[in-house]
Amino acid sequence: MFANKKKKFIANISPDEIFLDAQNIPNFDSCQLEGRIEKPIGQKIFFAAGIFFSLLFALLFLRAGQLQIARGEDLALRADDNHLQRVMLPAERGLIYDRNGEVLAWNGTDSRNYLRLEGLAHVVGYTGLLYEEIVGKAGVEKSYDEALAGEAGIKLVETSSKNEIISESAQIKPKSGESVYLTIDAGVQNKLYEILKNLSAERGFQGGAAVVLDVNNGEVLSLVSYPEYNSHVLTDGEPKEKIDEYFADSGKPFVNRAVSGLYAPGSVIKPFVALAALNEKIIDPFKEIFSSGSISIPNPYFPDLKSVFYDWKAHGWVDMRHALAVSSNVYFYTIGGGYEDVNGLGIGKIGEYMRLFGLGEQTNIQLAGEKRGLVPSPQYKKDNSEDPVWRIGDTYNISVGQGDFQVTPLQMAVATALLANNGYRVSPVLVLNKAGLPAGQAGKKERIEKEIPVDYFQIVREGMRRAVEDGTAQGLRGLPVKVAAKTGTAELGSGIFVNSWLIAFWPYENPRFSISIVLERGRASNLIGGVYAGRELLDWMSIHKPNYLTP
């Protein structure tokens, strides 16, 4: 049989299958690459590319060999033992100065340092660590922390396993903090603290506070709270035993009494009640009211009995100036709550004017923890008392600064400044407008919303001046500067203990400074308190700081 034979077919290729049809070129689809003749890549290009990649691989091989052979061991150890870390570069914290340029807080080698002068702690404050950064914890250190702190920098540090630095490079340089200049005079601050401290120890007061304020621009010359803490101890966090003592101390050294202490104002509220009564035409300032030592009204609980409200003594016939000088309670019961032929302000008007004068409101000083205080009202009693009914006796108590009335020493200094400057409320400020820092409300002095004639302010000031000449503040007579003042003794609880107050301003003819002083929880039998402290300060100023006694 015959095997199948494969047949080879040789196709004939015609010229028109090889060469382009010139007439058909326009009909080719160029997007599909029809009609294109492809040429092979030349051998020269392949040759050049080969040389290029050969050289590249040769260089990489040589570099790898260098690292592996020449420096391999060194780099291996370095890779195993070393590491990079980002290290914060702390900024230099700004300094704190008093108004005269005395440095109060500065940076030591490894800690924040403070001037070792009593009385500065609650104003300057202290610092501590937060996430390895130094931050202000109290006082100006806290209030102006952002300005004082500056901006931290960052650097990269390469270290060995033995923690030896091999290399470092700064990425962001630190920016130093701003320095802060206070309105406080460190010398006055220290002396006023010393006075409160010694008086408390000698007379049994639990603590005290005082504020001296410029009546024209609100600058705080002194703001003292006794007792205080040691800024160094709290900044360093040791000794632990001392810090434990602070927490256990019944005197509460962490409380800044000047801005956070709440006290019944007692009779230092009387000039403000008098001013309100004059403006509301409640009484003519020359009208005399007789003080026999008390007034009696029907008892709401026992109609057959009388409710008796006592004066601290019988004063006889007193007009407004005389009543301010001798601090007659009966006079102020009468113009506050009404009695016999005098209608009285009533609690609504009393509250309205007290808030107008800044009581019951924050002053917005640049210190943390400021309290609002309290001007009681019928609604407050309804919400907070077992006996919700507001009675005439409640109004009598508020008229002489008792009951639930609460103020801070700073509020009283601001309100006293308002009496001295004819009705302008100044905003207290602790920082001078230096070094580009904001000075808060420095220099802010706004007229109160009610129009009160200047003559009414003068009548009240004359009553306060008379208190110095022949009234309850005679301890301030004979000073190199004329002072107008009002004293107060606020009873606590059953009356065994009292708070001793003084508000004052000077010079009398052209007022420049106001002061408020409170000595806390002393024996009612003690007769030495706020007036004595004021006298001690002004006597010292007349020798060491006479520039503060001149107009």
From TrEMBL:
<feature type="domain" description="Penicillin-binding protein transpeptidase">
    <location>
        <begin position="208"/>
        <end position="523"/>
    </location>
</feature>
<keyword id="KW-1133">Transmembrane helix</keyword>
<dbReference type="GO" id="GO:0008658">
    <property type="term" value="F:penicillin binding"/>
</dbReference>
<feature type="transmembrane region" description="Helical">
    <location>
        <begin position="45"/>
        <end position="62"/>
    </location>
</feature>
<keyword id="KW-0133">Cell shape</keyword>
<protein>
    <recommendedName>
        <fullName>Penicillin-binding protein 2</fullName>
    </recommendedName>
</protein>
<dbReference type="InterPro" id="IPR050515">
    <property type="entry name" value="Beta-lactam/transpept"/>
</dbReference>
<dbReference type="InterPro" id="IPR005311">
    <property type="entry name" value="PBP_dimer"/>
</dbReference>
<dbReference type="GO" id="GO:0071555">
    <property type="term" value="P:cell wall organization"/>
</dbReference>
<keyword id="KW-0472">Membrane</keyword>
<dbReference type="GO" id="GO:0005886">
    <property type="term" value="C:plasma membrane"/>
</dbReference>
<keyword id="KW-0812">Transmembrane</keyword>
<keyword id="KW-1003">Cell membrane</keyword>
<dbReference type="Pfam" id="PF00905">
    <property type="entry name" value="Transpeptidase"/>
</dbReference>
<dbReference type="Pfam" id="PF03717">
    <property type="entry name" value="PBP_dimer"/>
</dbReference>
<dbReference type="InterPro" id="IPR001460">
    <property type="entry name" value="PCN-bd_Tpept"/>
</dbReference>
<keyword id="KW-0573">Peptidoglycan synthesis</keyword>
<dbReference type="InterPro" id="IPR036138">
    <property type="entry name" value="PBP_dimer_sf"/>
</dbReference>
<dbReference type="InterPro" id="IPR012338">
    <property type="entry name" value="Beta-lactam/transpept-like"/>
</dbReference>
<keyword id="KW-0961">Cell wall biogenesis/degradation</keyword>
<feature type="domain" description="Penicillin-binding protein dimerisation">
    <location>
        <begin position="110"/>
        <end position="169"/>
    </location>
</feature>
